[in-house]
Design brief:
32% helix, 5-stranded mixed beta sheet, alpha/beta, 8 helices, 236 residues, 3-stranded parallel beta sheet, single chain, Rossmann fold
Length: 236
Amino acid sequence: MKQITNKKISKNFAKIKEKIDLNHSYDLNAAVSLLKELNFVKFDSTLDIAINLGVDPKHSDQMVRGVVKLPSGTGKTIKVAVICKDDKVALAEESGADMAGSSNIIDDIKAGKINFDIYITTPDMMGVVGQVARILGPKGLMPNPKLGTVTTNIATAVKDAKEGQVEFRVEKAGIIHAGIGKMSFAVDKLVDNVKAIIESVNKAKPTGIKGTYVKKIHLSSTMGPSVRLSLNGLGL
């Protein structure tokens, strides 16, 4: 594949940006269709969503975090490791885990070999996994029961992770960013994914929030400009 120069990216970006009305809030279907039409990169880029929330993540009671299973999947190949006792290794592998075990995975993590997108474990292994919490935590990879990655149901957790489960978490500025599908997906498939994450973020609204919870939502493709979504009809 030919390397895309910064000059060419800037030229294409400027041309595309001219076709977007920055003062307009687009209907969801129109926004996705426009981004697909204006997508200029040669690779299968990602549809990204940015949700601006009226929360202050510095306060623990205003933290917004969760997982959503995207109905159309992410389009990415997700590598999953399961940290479990020996009697669960076969089950984890049969369920589609790329690797399963205990001390071998922990030793790799300690050595800096972070080779997986998701780590799943069983409750009885949390003491062992705690040895690498300082490594996995900052990378957002520490198994967490609230995210379904600490569970006794290994088969379901692996299946969900492989089929398009996405974690979302509000950042310091009060924004949630997530990649929610490939631009090669049909418009209706991307629309379904957008609706799913918006619904999940809305359900994760902290009980103490006053005023407007979802302030703005923007969609963009890799290396492309963003469009603002109209919040009408999104169930907010």
